[in-house]
Amino acid sequence: MWLVDLGAHVLEKVQALGRAALMLVGAIVVVPQPKKNLPLVIKQIYVVGVQSLLIIIVSGLFIGMVMALQGYTILVDYGAEDSLGPMVALSLLRELGPVVTALLFAGRAGSALTAEIGLMKATEQLSSLEMMAIDPLRRVIAPRFWAGIISMPMLAILFSTVGILGGHLVGVDWLGVDSGSYWSIMQATVELDVDVLNGVIKSIVFAVVVTWIAVFKGYDCLPTSEGISKATTETVVHASLAVLGLDFILTALMFGME
Amino acid sequence: MLTRKIELMVGVFAALTIAAVLILAMNVANTGMSGNGETYRLLAKFDNIGGLKARSAVKVGGVVVGRVTAIELDPQDYTPVVTLTISKDYINFPETSSAAILTSGLLGEQYVGLQPGFSFDGIEMLKEGDYIEDTKSALVLENLIGQFLFSKSND
Known about the structure:
Chain A is mainly α.
């Protein structure tokens, strides 16, 4: 009976959602112990944030450059190449910065988090922590979760900034758009408390979703080599889909109702 | 030694982010209103506001002095009422000032141009909530073309 299969499938998904919520609550609803936990979080910011810096900066530079090139060829037909600055800046700050950063972050850092936690589970390091009366949720999951939430908005801001500079490189230094109008029209169009702030809010939401999925898939995986590989794949796929879907909803809420 | 290196790198990461935020704040975005942030509101009725939107600029001689914060329809006579929020740095507009809806460039965005009037004895300054009496509506290109064709056909 296909109805039975469907029902079993739905129940399984709902149970996984419940386990994910319980894991998150167990990891973050605790008395804060900054002395003990801050070094752990900083170590994880190094792993997920600093080590993603290179790929984020290089991608941001190239995306900004390619947008300036594409935008210029279209805008120049209308004599509107002065609007290149706001075009590059708004697309990066509102959409591409948060979204591409989240996708790259899921591939670069999210998969590594899942694999690391999954391997800890497979080699029974998590159980040994429990044997020593150390809560693995607080010792292993929480620092990684917080590090992801702190790192990703920072990476998204860097991505947008580098992209705008890359757009300047191609648009102004190569294609000959006036440097003054690149910056001044951008300044006249971009609002700090609308465009920049909403981009940062987006990337915080994406950070929660991607990091949550990544640590949960690792924590919940089958403790076998096959299970870890499946969980790592699922992290990248589910996180990317969640980011793209949420992006539409957030954009509709932020910019669609004017 | 290893933790020191990690802390250093995270510090560099944070410093880079702060630098990026500063670039965004100083070079890329405008922070809304210029001046010390204190504002007052003037009202103006137009026959037609064209493509004017909330957050459009209010300019005097090309210098931004404020923003359009609300556009509503007067329920009595169905004319649009535009609320202009102007920085307190520019407080002395005489009652004889006029407001016009202008376009920057041929296809540019529309803004409100304020023209300060002459002030002599008996003329008061505009205060919070006052109406600017002398207004000029937006030019609507379709109407212009229509008038042009109509006057041609009369020849």
